[in-house]
Design a protein that fits this description.
single chain; alpha/beta; 5-stranded parallel beta sheet; 328 residues
């Protein structure tokens, strides 16, 4: 364990010898006999743990030495105790104002010197521990902030994943329900139209039976990508409704707008040209669509709105499939 180091600064060898004999058993002792030596010997690494400084010295006095040491970053926090024959209050006040830690008048009592030294070293050790703890707290705080940020990001990712369909990667039924409710409320508040399109892949069960479920999954993913790519506005929303069914929410869209979007969806899926030998309407995958439009009011309900779109989807399938049925 490293012994603490004390620098004695005094121009009188007698005083140095007394202090050195007093301190040698417990501390490592350095000696300087004038101000210049004191500044030079204080600037070691690490600096002394404490300095005993006489005031009355030839050349640079103790006050000047103190000012120089306090102005240097390397020694600015080293405790300095004045030991001096200058015992008047003004000198003591001046020393303390310049940054001295304590003031002992000569002739001194050895037990008092030891007690004052031990007090200042304990204070210094406490300050060092406090600073170290503060640094650890700051580091821990920074780490906690970083962890919290990562946790927020992870929660966001988990929320996003909980809102996505595991197969197609597009929003799932849960997210659809949330978005539809949100837009229903906004349309009711602003008295603007809201449109909905239910979509079903034609003859998907025969497709699965013929090509296998892996091919069926690939077909669902391709159709999902086409549907999403067909949306031209950021507010238009596509989700997987369940099985081979998809759904589009079209805010601020009237009956004419729904028809245009539905025709685009039909054409883009046909352009996909994904083979479907078991289809009864084409040699490739097709879709059927049913649409509904409403300006919601207190008398309307989401359930009725969905049922209207579902009934029109049924009409589209009953009418030959690969077509859209909207409002009359």
């Amino acid at each position: 364990m490293r012994r603490e180091t004390i620098l004695i600064v005094d121009d009188e060898k007698y005083n140095i010898n007394i202090l050195k004999e007093l301190l040698d058993k417990t501390y490592d002792v350095m000696v300087a006999m004038n101000g210049e030596q004191a500044i030079k010997r204080a600037n070691v690494s690490p600096p002394p743990d404490l300095i005993l400084l006489d005031i009355m010295m030839p050349g640079m006095d103790g006050f000047q030495v103190l000012e120089r040491l306090r102005a240097d970053h390397a020694t600015s926090e080293v405790p300095i105790i004045f030991i001096t024959a200058m015992g008047n209050t003004d000198d003591e006040t001046k020393g303390l104002a310049l940054g001295a830690a304590d003031y002992i008048a000569k002739p001194f009592s050895p037990s008092v010197v030891l007690a004052r030294i031990q007090t200042q070293l304990r204070l210094k050790s406490s300050l060092v521990r406090e600073r170290h703890l503060n640094q650890q707290l700051v580091s821990l705080s920074d780490e906690l902030i970083q962890k919290n940020s990562q946790l927020i990001e992870l929660n966001k990712t988990l929320q996003d994943l909980a809102s996505l369909d595991g197969l197609t990667g597009i929003p799932n039924r849960r997210r659809f329900d949330e978005y539809l409710q949100q837009e229903w409320n906004r349309s009711m508040r602003d008295k603007i139209p809201l449109a909905l399109i239910l979509i079903d892949i034609d003859f998907f069960k025969p497709f699965n039976d013929h090509y296998g479920h892996a091919a069926g999954d690939e077909c669902l993913k391709k159709v999902a990508r086409v549907l999403v790519a067909s949306m031209v506005r950021t507010i238009d929303f596509v989700a997987r409704y369940g099985g081979e069914e998809f759904v589009c929410v079209l805010p601020e869209t009237d009956a004419a707008g729904v028809h245009l979007v539905a025709q685009r969806l039909l054409e883009n899926v046909v352009t996909l040209a994904h083979p479907h030998e078991q289809s009864k309407v084409a040699a490739h995958v097709t879709i059927s669509l049913g649409g509904a439009v409403v300006i919601p009011s207190q008398e309307d309900s989401l359930q009725l709105f969905l049922r209207q779109a579902d009934e029109r989807l049924y009409k589209a399938k009953a009418g030959g499939r690969n077509r859209f049925v909207g409002q009359d």
